[in-house]
Amino acid sequence: LQGPVFRYIFDIMEEWIIRFINFSPDQYKILSKSSTWLTLEQYATSLKEKSEEEKLAPALYRAYLNITETPKDTFVKLEGWSKGVFLINGFNLGRYWNIGPQKTLYLPAPL
């Protein structure tokens, strides 16, 4: 998709381009094993050198969560996040957008 996009009824967003990102199982394995992920400190430092436009560009984030007790069903709160897809252990948990309707994503314990 490329060109003007109509959002809602009267809002027109110009210069809109949608790019495909391959999240096939093979591609996911490559991403998850990559050694080129930045630490939080490295990422924060790199932001200082980026333009405002670069800061708004799509990005992938990876985090680790160490659970010491038996996992339980929970929700992922997306407050402060803008728009994207949430993957956990290679499973697409869902899409989110800060304007809604999703404000949380259900995360069952088996994942």
What does this structure look like?
There is one protein chain. The two termini are 33 Å apart. This protein has helices at 25-33, 40-48, 52-55; strands at residues 2-7, 11-17, 74-77, 83-88, 91-97, 104-107. The strands form 3 sheets. It has a two-stranded antiparallel sheet. 20% of the residues lie in helices and 31% in strands. Strand 4 (83-88) and strand 5 (91-97) form a beta hairpin. It has one domain (24-107). With 111 residues, it is α+β, with helices and mostly antiparallel strands. It is built from 3 helices and 6 strands.
The total beta strand count reads 6
Kindly give the count of domains: 1
Task: Please estimate the helix content.
Answer: 10-25%
Major sheet: arrangement of strands:
1-2
* Cα gyration radius (Å): 17 Å
| Low-confidence runs of at least 5 consecutive residues | none
Summed up, the helix count is 3
Structural class: alpha+beta
User: What is the helix/strand order?
Assistant: EEHHHEEEE
Q: Tell me, rounded to a whole number, the average pLDDT.
A: 79
Instruction: Give the amount of beta strand, in percent.
Output: 25-35%
Instruction: Note the overall shape.
Output: globular
State the separation between the terminal residues, measured CA to CA. Answer: 33 Å
Sheet with the most strands?
A: 2 strands, antiparallel
